[in-house]
Amino acid sequence: MTQPAGTAARRLVETLAINGVTRVFCVPGESYLAVLDALVDHPEIKVITCRHEAGAANMAEAYGKMTGRPGVCMVTRGPGATHASIGVHTARQDSTPMILFVGQIALTDRGRGAFQEVDYREVFGGLAKWATELESPDRTVEIVERAFATAQQGRMGPVVIALPEDILHEPGGPAPQPTPIIPARAGLDPAFLEELQDWLAKAERPLLVLGGSGWTEEAAAAIGDWSERLGLPVALSFRRKDILSNDRSNYAGDLGLGCNPELMKRAKDADLLIALGARLGENPTQGYTLFTRDETAHKLVHIHPGPEELGRVWRPLISAVADNSLAALALSTLEPGRTWHDAAKAAHDHYQAFSTPVSVTGAVNMSECMAHLGEVLPPTAIVTNGAGNFAAWLHRFYRHRACRTQLAPTSGAMGYGYPAAIAAKSLQPGREVICVAGDGDFMMTGQELATAVQHGINTIVILVDNGTYGTIRMHQEGHYPRRVIATDLKNPDFVKYAEAFGAFAIRCETTADFPAALQAARDAAKDRPALVHLITSAEDIAPNRTITGLRNK
Question: What's the whole-model pTM score?
């Protein structure tokens, strides 16, 4: 049966196509079969069929991070939607544009407690920027276009739209306009820029902190060049290490978990703190302890696209609502009449010292492995990760050299990294994409190896296996030494696991063997997905920390 022209399902897909959507990540469901059928007639939108809704949602979130445009995920009602909620949560915390379409029971059955019935406005209302249900088929284009605008304007984030299955077959109202939604972007007021320039001219110890989402390469390069010319030290916010090249002479490091003590001291001592795009949330401010509100009232210049974030925690000296990239381009025109090159050199020297490999007790030195990764990969390589102590080694010792080369969840979502790698490689097949994952982290979405093999998406995963939920084990040993419970893991043979899906896999047990294992995986990834099973010791629980040391402390 051919679906008639002009149905709500067809109007929805037409609106996606006009707005430049090139991928839909989904787990299919009978509740939105009409939408899937409409996608058959739009080959410009590639449908990536996933093995779990969490994987699909994480892929859509990563698409949003990579492109700055909404990533699209489609799942079925009830369990499908709740499985996908993890991706919505990450998109919200990470300020990523995303649209989740959820198949829904028929409108005629609503309120009956029908099979898999959920009130999506209630469930996702506090998690998404906007959660709604398509109740009038003739408003299909209006609702979807509003979703694109909402996801991209202000502080970017996720939108959830429920699609009652009976509505999808109805006439869908007017066709969409032939042009995409252009999100509104706010710039900086000239009076604000003039005031900021005056404050900068008087500053002895300024620090620029960049964060947030939606950065253009042009804007990142402009503010990078400007700050480097002035010798203005720059720190990047938690898991935003790719906004600027870490090799810039004024790069001071990233404010996040396991932060460089020298950088924390620099942030504390700064007499002018310019935060652009960064919310200055819990992790960058070390549990809200890096400053006090009295201190920020005299030194914080806060620029953010979401007005609700200004004054939310920190009282600013001055603040402005502006798009990150437009603000960066405006800031790069300022001439404060002075420079801080000595401070920039000291900050960068401290960063380089902190990111130099350290000694470990085990046979695999993760700091040397991550440093090697940075040395051999091209600057355009995309590196992804989920959550766990393994990521501390990656973030500290791998140096990003280009914009949009990091996909990592500020939400701390385990299982994010591998789906993110699949999304990135599907968008950029000519670039190398490496996922660094922990054993506990990988097993949450490892079944997406099947997705990678099925769609010919040849990612590489470096699976760091220390047989424990490392982050929790570290805190457990710190609070309850030697009373180990619930954190040990008995893992499969990950080489056989990967090979069962049709991927290449190799085992590595020493630092010396890592370069060859990595190269073997890179060679194999020309034809199929690849995995390096890297065996590490739980004793080396984090950089400069051991379980023995935690117990003795």
Answer: 0.97
